[in-house]
Design a protein that fits this description.
By secondary structure, the chain is α/β, with parallel strands linked by helices. It has a single domain, classed as Alpha-Beta Barrel (TIM Barrel). The chain is built from 11 helices and 8 strands. The longest helix has 21 residues. It starts with a helix and ends in a 17-residue tail after the last helix. GO terms for molecular function: glucan endo-1,6-beta-glucosidase activity; glucan exo-1,3-beta-glucosidase activity.
């Protein structure tokens, strides 16, 4: 998905901006958290200054499985998605409930703690319904008022010197069936139609304009045009051949109309070919500004034997290359559901294993452009999905460079 010194020495000069390459980014206090040596050196140093980030999961697109207490406190118990909750509560009550959630799930203290833990990037999942005039008032039900809270989070992260990826996590019509991460529990994916692509493209234009014109978005350098589409190349063919190139054209035309110079363009991110939706570059005429997202959940890889040494070994040799540049934008320490609570895998008594496995995965993903863990926090009582809890448990070190001292491989 994005950035490292070789990326910028081998490509043409007109490039999307990346921190420490095209321009440095600083916290409000003047600190450059990507550069620990000097202001003039390149940011991405092997084993030190790759992308190291966390997802703000369940902030703007709530997934009830990982935020059950918050979901219940909002009055949404028993509802499967944001769409269902808003429909059940009614618009006015839902808007207040969601505003309370947005104001408390991720705070400025969280952002500051991320920096203290050595993180330099956040990925923010959002839904198309942030642009409220895209929502069909007679048939769609989503909370209103989220954009101001997105501005706040991006402002805090920019003030802290962090890099920001905004990800279209919930697409019009839903890009996957029966998945709350789309914002609705649709029986079938309705995204793969021209009129839905048009709505998504309008969202991307609006988001691009907001990023370039609102100072709180100043450290947003990447816009992902859809998260986790269907893993079926035939079903996704119109997305690859129509929506992707149209997204590039519409985003670049928007930037040109705003007078944005090429070194300040956004990176445009797509799921990589490993995801299974097809080759994202197939119909692109210019991919110099492209970046790629890889989601690596070993727990769902049936080719890896379910024992600790196999998990470590698989991660040690895990090559996430292919489309380039790639960031591993989602991963975790979770293991298969049928063993996750057994003695061999129970979190509290196996911290040494999970620390080794975290190191093995992070080192592998830093052979690409870095990683973004899913997620910063969860309400599962299980650090395998919660970066914050894993640090508290001693599984993830605050000094992330020390993972190379673990020698897990």
């Amino acid at each position: 998905m994005k950035f490292i010194l070789p990326l910028f020495t081998s490509l043409p000069v007109a490039l999307a901006w990346l921190p420490g390459i095209d321009k440095d980014i600083y916290s409000a206090a003047g600190t450059n958290i990507f550069n620990v040596t000097s202001a003039s050196s390149k940011r991405w140093l092997p084993a030190s200054k790759k992308i190291r980030g966390v997802n703000l999961g369940s902030h703007f697109v709530i997934e009830p499985w990982m935020a059950s207490m918050a979901w219940s406190n909002m009055g949404c118990s028993g509802q499967r998605s944001e769409f269902d909750c808003v429909m059940a509560l009614g618009q006015e009550t839902a808007d207040q409930a969601f505003a309370d959630h947005w104001g408390s799930w991720i705070t400025q203290d969280d952002i500051n703690q991320m920096v203290q833990y050595g993180l330099n990037t956040i990925r923010i999942p959002v839904g198309y319904w942030l642009k409220e005039d895209l929502v069909y008032a007679d048939s769609e039900h989503f909370p209103k008022g989220g954009i101001g809270y997105l501005e706040d989070v991006c402002g805090w992260a920019s003030d802290a010197g962090m890099y920001i990826i905004i990800d279209l996590h919930g697409a019009p019509g839903a890009q996957q069936p029966k998945q709350p991460f789309t914002g609705q529990y649709a029986p079938n994916p309705g995204f793969y139609q021209d009129y839905q692509y048009d709505r998504a493209l309008e969202f991307l234009e609006w988001m691009t304009t907001s990023i370039h014109q609102n100072n709180k978005f100043r450290n947003v350098g990447m816009l992902e045009i859809v998260n986790e589409p269907v893993q079926n190349a035939d079903q996704a063919s119109s997305m690859i051949n129509s929506y992707y190139p149209s997204a590039f054209t519409r985003i670049r035309n928007t930037e040109s109309s705003l007078g944005i110079t090429s070194n300040n363009y956004l990176h445009i991110q797509m799921m990589n070919e490993k995801w299974g939706s097809g080759d994202p570059t197939q119909s692109l005429t210019d991919n110099y500004f492209a970046a790629y997202d890889d989601h690596r959940y070993v727990k769902w890889d049936s080719s890896v034997a379910v024992d600790k040494e196999s998990y470590i070994s698989a991660s040690c040799v895990d090559d996430r290359g292919g489309n380039w540049p790639t960031i591993v934008g989602e991963w975790s320490l979770s293991v298969p559901d049928n063993v996750e609570h057994t003695a061999d895998w129970e979190p509290s008594s196996n911290t040494d294993f999970y620390a080794r496995w975290f190191a093995a995965q992070a080192i592998a993903y830093e052979k690409q452009e870095g990683w973004v863990f899913w997620s910063w926090k969860a309400q599962l009582g299980d650090y395998r999905w919660s970066y914050k809890d894993a640090v508290d448990a001693g599984v993830i070190p605050k000094d992330l460079d020390s993972i190379y001292d673990y020698s897990p491989c």
